[in-house]
Amino acid sequence: MTSIGILGTGRVGAGLAGKFAATGHPVILGSRNPKEENAAPAGGIDPGVSVADQRTVARTADVVINATPGDSALDRLTGLRTELAGKILVDVSNATRATDDGLPGDLCYPGSSLAERLQAALPDTRVVKTLNTMLFTVMTAPETLATPPTVYVSGNDGPAKRAVTGLLGDLGWQPGWIEDLGDITTARATEAMILVVPPVLRRHGFRPFAVSLAR
Fold first, then answer.
1. Which of 77, 140, 70 is nearest to 109 (CA)?
2. Is the pLDDT score of 99 beyond 80?
3. Does pTM surpass 0.85?
4. Fewer CB within 10 Å: C terminus or N terminus of the chain?
C-alpha cells in the first residue's frame, strides 16, 4: 500500500486520513504541534493514524497531500522543497481571502492558481490538483450525494495523475465521476469554482455538495 502523508490536521486532513487508513494505507498526519495532537486523540484524528511534524511527513511519505490553508500554502510548502523532491504532491486546497463571515472570498492568484504556483516553486515535485470543488464531507463519501458528483484532476505528470486517480477510487470515487482536465494550468478553472461556493453556503448552509458536470 502507498504511504500517505497529509499536511494539515483540520476537518479536511483528519477526514482524508481516517478514510485512507480504513482502506489499508499507512497514514501520517503532519502537524505544526505534533505532541499536542498525539496527546489529544479526541480532537477528531483516527486512532490508527500517526502524527508527526510536517517536515518529517513530507520526507517519509510516498504521496503527500496538502490540506493546509490555501492562502499560506505556497510559502509553507516551498519551505519543504528538499523533502518533497520526487514526490507526488496532491493539492486539495483553495487559495482565497477570507470574508467577514469566514467563507471564501477573492482568489489569491487570479489568472493563475495555487497549483500552478506550487508546481513552479517545486519543479522536482509532481503536483496534482483535485478534490477542491466540494464540501469536505463529500471528499470521502461521494456516494452520499443524490446526483453522481464530479471530481476534477489537473497535473503535468501522467503517471502521477494515474496514481492519484487510484487513490480517489479508494475514497469511493467511481471511474465515471473522475474528470482529467489536462495539465496543471487547468487547475485555475477548478480553483475559480470556489467563487460559487459562498452564496450557496449562505443560502443553504453546510449541506454536502459538489460542483459537478451534468451530461
1. 70
2. yes
3. yes
4. C
- In the prediction, which pLDDT does 10 show? 93
Q: What is the DSSP string of 73-122?
A: HHHHHHTTHHHHTT-EEEE----EEE-TTSSEEEESSTTS-HHHHHHHH-
The CA distances from residue 192 to 87, 125, 162, 189, 201, in Å, are 26, 23, 24, 5, 16
What phi and psi, each to the nearest 5 degrees, are found at residue 153?
-130, 130
Residue 102 CA to residue 202 CA, distance in Å, equals 11
93, 81, 90: which is closest to 5 by C-alpha?
Answer: 90
Domain boundaries, the chain: 4-204
Q: 59 burial class (0-12, 13-18, 19+ CB within 10 angstroms)? A: middle
Contact 128, 6 (CB under 8 A): no
Distance between CA atoms of residues 199 and 185, nearest Å: 26
Q: What is the pLDDT of residues 160-215, one digit of tens each?
A: 999 999 999 999 999 999 999 999 999 999 999 999 998 998 999 889 999 999 98
| Superfamily the domain 4-204 falls into | NAD(P)-binding Rossmann-like Domain (3.40.50.720)
* Long-range pairs of 40-44 with CB within 8 A, sequence gap ≥ 24: 43/9, 43/14, 44/11, 44/14
Give the C-alpha separation, 100 to 50, whole Å.
35
